């Protein structure tokens, strides 16, 4: 069960302002087959940060100074994140990346943590530019009206695991368009891509260099997960036979067609324990030029239709006994305040090939 506070109904801000410029897409009298839940933040922004190390040899990660930094500056820090989790993936260049996703919902706590010389100094140390392990961090600052989440109440994950948030039964779930309806800012802002911004690749160095990328306005970030940990043998076999294939095909399409989809980066990550041992969950971490680019794929492309139809067939077959659990979080980044930094990484890491960037070392 979640450690978050459970609310009986959606708070007023979940519905956005009354004077909307964009109509709610929820069909009249629509009732979702399954009630899903969303997070309510207590403050003025959430700080979601991805910290990672990459190496050609996975064994190099275990003894890396990055893992020691994680233990001291995240897990063992008095002002560390309210929740965090670990994952690994092998990128198209063949490098293994160990990623820690960390959440702060208390601005003062994050500020104290960020100003700690031991925290900041580690990333600035010239030693990060040497050796066979690269590091990267993507530190995001997002106001509450620019984030939306969808969870199962019996499977706490991601931001929902923070004891500092509340969760409520969202009125917007189970239909096309629900993602935008859950974003309060979309009531008065289309959240479109910054004019003139495109996914034109730039050849930048990487190894032995430090780069900081400038994120354009309204970049859309998604964490989308599924877990098979609660499935019995029959449902696990059905999941592997009917849903896993379409899911992999959809993720591969996004990863391989950045220009067509507006997906600048798509990492299919295996959830792990702190030592990199696999857990019974996987999730995609994606960056799109805008929410509309994400929606265009989700509502109009055959690869997503295959995922959606397989999921609907599963619900029809198992109904309320369905043991599959999924969750996602979407963040629409405002201009400024984002830190996208890559040190001693290969040139195709994350957002390094895109947008404007500054070489710091």
Give the integer mean of the pLDDT values.
95
Whole-angstrom Rg:
20 Å
Helix content: 25-40%
Shape: globular
**Class derived from helix and strand content:** alpha+beta
CATH architecture of the domain at 46-142 and 196-216 and 334-359: 2-Layer Sandwich
CATH fold naming of the domain at 46-142 and 196-216 and 334-359: Alpha-Beta Plaits
User: How many helices?
Assistant: 9
What is the CATH class of the domain at 46-142 and 196-216 and 334-359? Alpha Beta
List low-pLDDT spans.
none
Measured between the Cα atoms of the first and last residue, the distance is 46 Å
Order of helices and strands: EEEHHEEHHEEEHEEHHEEHHEEE
Strand order, main sheet: write it out: 7-13-10-12-11-4-5-3-6-14-9-15
> How many beta-strand runs?
15
Description:
- The chain is of the alpha+beta class and 361 residues long.
- The chain has nine helices and 15 strands.
- The chain has a twelve-stranded antiparallel beta sheet with strand order 7-13-10-12-11-4-5-3-6-14-9-15. Strands 1-8-2 form a three-stranded mixed beta sheet, with no helix packed on it.
- The N and C termini lie far apart (46 Å).
- The mean pLDDT is 95.
């Amino acid at each position: 069960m979640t450690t978050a506070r459970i609310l009986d109904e959606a708070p007023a801000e979940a519905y956005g302002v009354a004077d909307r410029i964009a109509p709610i897409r929820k069909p009249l009298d629509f009732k979702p087959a399954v009630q899903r839940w969303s997070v309510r933040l207590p403050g003025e922004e959430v700080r979601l940060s991805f910290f990672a190390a990459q190496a050609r040899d996975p064994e190099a990660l275990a003894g890396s100074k990055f893992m020691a930094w994680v233990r001291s500056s995240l897990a063992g820090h008095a002002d560390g994140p309210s929740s965090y989790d670990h994952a690994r993936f092998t990128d198209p260049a063949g490098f293994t990346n160990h990623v820690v996703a960390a959440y702060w919902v208390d601005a003062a706590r994050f500020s104290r943590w960020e100003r700690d010389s031991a925290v900041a100094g580690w990333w600035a140390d010239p030693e990060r530019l040497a050796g066979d392990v690269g590091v990267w961090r993507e530190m995001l600052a997002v106001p509450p009206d620019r984030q939306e989440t969808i969870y199962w109440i019996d499977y706490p994950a991601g931001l929902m695991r923070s004891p500092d948030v509340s969760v409520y039964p969202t009125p917007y779930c189970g239909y096309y368009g629900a993602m935008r309806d859950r974003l309060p800012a979309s009531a008065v802002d289309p959240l479109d891509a910054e004019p003139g911004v495109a996914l034109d690749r730039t050849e930048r160095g990487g190894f032995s260099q430090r780069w900081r990328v400038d994120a354009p306005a309204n970049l859309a970030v998604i964490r989308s997960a599924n877990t098979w940990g609660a499935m019995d043998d029959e449902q696990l076999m059905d999941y592997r036979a009917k849903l896993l294939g379409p899911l992999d095909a959809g993720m591969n399409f996004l990863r391989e067609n950045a220009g067509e989809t507006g997906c600048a980066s798509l990492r299919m990550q295996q959830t792990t324990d702190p030592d990199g041992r696999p857990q019974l969950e996987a999730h995609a971490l994606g960056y799109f030029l805008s929410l509309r680019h994400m929606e265009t794929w989700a509502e109009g492309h055959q690869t997503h239709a295959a995922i959606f139809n397989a999921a609907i067939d599963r619900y029809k077959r198992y109904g309320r006994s369905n043991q599959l659990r999924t969750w996602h979080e979407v963040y629409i980044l405002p201009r400024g305040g984002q830190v996208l930094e890559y040190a001693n990484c290969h040139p195709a890491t994350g957002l390094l090939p895109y947008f404007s960037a500054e070489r710091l070392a």
